[in-house]
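Hi F.,

I've been meaning to write this up properly since the lab meeting, where we talked about keeping a consistent format for the predictions we share between groups. The idea is simple: the sequence comes first, exactly as it goes in, then the structure tokens exactly as they come out, then a line or two of notes. No screenshots and no reformatting. I'm using this chain as the first example so we have something concrete to point to.
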Amino acid sequence: MAKQIKHQATKYDTSRSALITVGQTTHAITTRMTIWSSGYKVRSISQLEDEKALSRGADLLSEFIVFGVAATVTTYEYLRSSESNRKKEESRLQKIRDDATILQAKLNSLDKRLVALEEYAKANRSSISLLRSGKEYIEPTSVVPIDDRDGEHQFAIIKTAGEEKQQQQQQQQQQSGEEQEKKKRSWWWPF
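Output, unedited:
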């Protein structure tokens, strides 16, 4: 295909003169670079014959066409691949969101069932104590909700009963320490 374009471009006078100019320019540039890389100064560069300049210009045109087609195809494939990856990632994230919604619905259901069981246990303390060999049902100090979302896409920090007990004990120790310090100060000064 590049050869056909090269052959067609050499038929018309306008494209022929443009290709000769391009061929002469590329010859001048490559000759200058070769002389400079050898360490010599360029004094003058002789012109190529029109047929050789036409051939060089046509070769450059065909190489440019091949390069342009290759760059276009590569860019198209890259964009198509990135779009495909974006769609895959989007579908994966949507699946994760759907799974999270389903799991949250299950947790909400379990939370309701747990509340119902606790209410049943409160109502039937005596029959439960018989089942536990005389030990009485101990009601939890705080109910930890299973639905941990606080608003939209924000998560609340939920403390376990053990953490709450530990925090209460620390507060009690602080208060008792402050009271003992007040007593120490007040034995010699009543105010």
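Notes:
The chain is about 75% helix and 0% strand.
Residues 50-123 form the longest helix (74 residues).

If this format works for you, I'll send the rest the same way.

G.
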